Amino acid sequence: MTTAIVILNWNGKKYLEEFVPIVLKHSNFPSVSVYVADNNSIDDSVAFLKTNFPTVKLICLQQNYGYANGYNEAIKQLTEDIIVLLNSDIEVTQNWLNPVLNLFEQDKNIAAIQPKILDYNNRNTFEYAGASGGFIDKLGYPFCRGRIFNELEKDNNQYNTAQPIFWATGACLFVRREAYLEAGQLDGDFFAHMEEIDLCWRIKNLGYQVWVQPNSVVYHVGGGTLNKINPKKTYLNFRNNLFLISKNAPKRYILFLILARLVLDGIAGLKFLIEGQASHCWAVVKAHFAFYAKAVSMLKKRNNKKFKFQNKVYSEIAVTSVVWKFYIEKKKKFSEL
Q: For residue 307, is it left (φ>0), alpha (ψ between -120 and 50) or beta?
């Protein structure tokens, strides 16, 4: 079983300088290759890599395709069995590969796996983008073992069991190349944020499983390309969540879910405004208009062979409303849900 570690880069020389040596150190196996797919950076990332890390294989893309199509374009050029989509701001650890690759070997029905993601700056705390495995509620709100909304738990090994999850983080996503292609790859319309949830939903509908393997640990800086104070990140999160629902929720629930999100997102926008974050409030408004402009094309994807939804996994979703649990019942930890 061969493995390709693919680091997607866009003007991230400082992260490549810091983290590529660690990736190379802890991934030095004959069956593992390390790639950097460069999204047409305008800094000197590529020259830096050629000079300092000649063993890293370069894939130079001709434009900034974003996260989703950036990986799609890169993976077209690969033949390895397992692809690791690795953010440039991830610090891997000594034994990060073996536990995950062993899990793939043990169960051929597992198509995607994530490690445990801890905060690079607060190393005993779960990191926002994935924590110890991703889940979703019936209204389409994602959350994690170890993170609900912005509430991050300390890692006391309380979520150290390997188990099936609903979605695996795109910050460090191990996926079988065959399943990735069969599911239709990442959806480029998302550009960045939540496209991994969409992909995992489609992978599960094909009958595969998605797992977390906490015996593998990585540390994530977070916000390497878009940080949380950037209104564009807010825009993408709200717009893409609506994309996710329209593509994947059972048809009979879509109208209700979109109307419910219109109300709840409106409340979120009002909260931003009250907190003096007018640009984020406007980002929520723009996200909804952008979704309505593309709603028809999103709904059409449900009948596209690459994206077809079979209504197989919605019934697996255990939490009706994480918003209610978190804000009304004051349940701040995953274990309390």
A: alpha
Let me know: does 3 contact 82? Beta carbons within 8 Å.
yes
Burial class (CB in 10 A: 0-12, 13-18, 19+), 188: middle
How far is the CA of 95 from the CAs of 92, 102, 131, 193, 215, in angstroms? 8, 12, 18, 28, 8
Whether the pLDDT of residue 248 is over 70: the answer is yes
> φ, ψ for residue 47 (rounded to 5)?
-60, -40
Helix (H) or strand (E) segment spanning residue 267: helix 254-274
**Sequential DSSP letters for 183-250:** TT---GGG-SSSHHHHHHHHHHHTT-EEEEEEEEEEEE---SSS-TT-HHHHHHHHHHHHHHHHHHS-
How open is the CA angle 333-88-96, to the nearest 5 degrees? 65
pLDDT digits (tens, 9 = 90+) for 173-224: 999 999 999 999 999 999 888 999 999 999 998 899 999 999 999 999 986 4
Those residues whose C-beta lies under 8 Å from the C-beta of residue 124, and which sit 6 or more positions away, are: 118, 154, 155
- Residue at token pair 């019934």: 315
Cα separation, 150 vs 316, in Å, equals 24
What residues have CB less than 8 Å from 64, skipping those under 6 apart? 10, 39, 40, 70
Global pTM value: 0.94
Under 8 Å CB-to-CB from 327, ≥6 apart: which residues?
A: none
Per the document, the length of the chain is 337
- Above 60 in pLDDT, residue 225? no
